[in-house]
Amino acid sequence: MLTQPYNIYWRTGLQYTVIGEYIHPSALLCTDTATNYKKFARIKGLQHETVNERQKQRVKKGIYHIQHVNNFHNRLKTWMERFQGVAMKYLDNYLYWFRWLELGKNLAFEKRVEQMLISACQKSNYGTVQKLRSA
Fold first, then answer.
1. Distance CA 98, CA 79 (A)
2. pLDDT digits (tens, 9 = 90+) for 64-74
3. DSSP conformation class of 54
4. Against a cut of 0.85, is the pTM above it?
5. H-helix or E-strand containing 111?
6. DSSP state letters, 77-102
7. Which of 61, 112, 133, 134 is most buried when burial is the number of CB atoms within 10 A of its CB?
8. How many CB atoms lie within 10 A of CB 103?
């Protein structure tokens, strides 16, 4: 996961080198109307569709929307508030924990416990942002 503070990426231009490597040139970028996304799409040569949330536009052309991303972000933010701040060096752990909870949220309690025990016994594949950048 890319866990550097969001604003650092967009202010310094790191998103072009870090995130841009993982977006296929044929991908379609669907975002809100922030200008940094427009610049990113232009630099990477991506097709770009914007949804203007401020004008209550939720869906564009019947198929383009950012509601799933906004909903996921809201769930993550609400879940993280209970910790009253997280040290950057542990942010990956919290994000993996949240993701694990999200993946199992529709399972019965017994099945979630079983999955937790299995996951705890498996060898983890730990990767950092620095490893991704140097790859």
1. 8
2. 777 888 888 89
3. G
4. no
5. helix 109-121
6. HHHHHTTT---GGGHHHHHHHHHHHH
7. 112
8. 12
